[in-house]
Amino acid sequence: MQQTETLIYGNYYHIYNRGINSCDLFRETYNYEYFLSLYDKFISPIADTYAWVLMPNHFHLLLKIKENITYKYSNADRSVDAVRFNDCKWETIELSTLIAPDSVKMPKPHLHFSHLFNSYSKFINKRYNRNDSLFDRPFKRKLIDNEIYLKQVLLYIHNNPVHHGFCNHPLEYAWSSYLSCISIKPTKLKRDIIIGWFDDLENFKTIHNQKVELTVIEKLLEI
Predict the structure, then answer these.
(1) Distance from C-alpha of 25 to C-alpha of 159, rounded to nearest angstrom
(2) N or C, which terminus of the chain has less Cβ within 10 Å?
(3) Rounded to the nearest 5 degrees, what angle is found at the Cα of 109, between the Cα atoms of 59 and 191?
(4) What percentage of the chain exceeds 90 in pLDDT?
(5) Dist CA 218 CA 205 (whole Å)
């Protein structure tokens, strides 16, 4: 059995998964919107997002696990192991300033993804009167350790709808981060950093206008 990549603070990852037996994850507009709201709730506190795409039966994410993120508990939280996720508050601290950093409760990133997928699965099962599993397990994750690889993953993600025949250009697909990258509207996406990988916005657009051979990238990414 292939070993599952551990999610480590400060590292970039390509995270992706599909519906079990390739079943649809998203059947209507509200499904996409609800998944993104859960993503913001469960993942944004522990990861910075650089690219994403939601396809009908699968998704791809490019993110970086945040560093120095801890749980902040109220006085009522007598057992850190028993604290319910929704009762947790978040704060960013500099661990080097703490007298006893080993005593700080650090979040476990993989559990946040479990919360996301479990919550979404319950929503879909209730909404469509189903009882089956929704996602393949475990979810796939690959460590990204250089900027060239980052660019390849980002291009792969944004061009996924083109590759699967849903559109002719990433601009035409609503459920990806491409539109946020070229927009001036507020976003939690790390837009300035992303554009910097491509030098400037015009070059970012130019590269996305070029034909991308995703089968080549898939081999590089071992997807």
Answers:
(1) 19
(2) N
(3) 55
(4) 62
(5) 22
Tens of pLDDT, residue by residue over 83-109, are: 455 555 555 555 556 555 555 667 788
Which residues are CB-neighbours of 64 under 8 A, at least 6 positions away?
10, 11, 12, 13, 47, 48, 50, 190
| CA-CA-CA-CA torsion sign (63, 69, 72, 78) | positive
Cα–Cα distance between 223 and 215 in angstroms, integer? 9
Pick the CATH number of 12-67+108-221 from 3.40.1190.10, 3.30.70.1290, 3.40.1190.20, 2.60.40.1930: 3.30.70.1290
End-to-end CA distance of the chain: 16
Distance from the Cα of residue 214 to its chain's centroid: 20
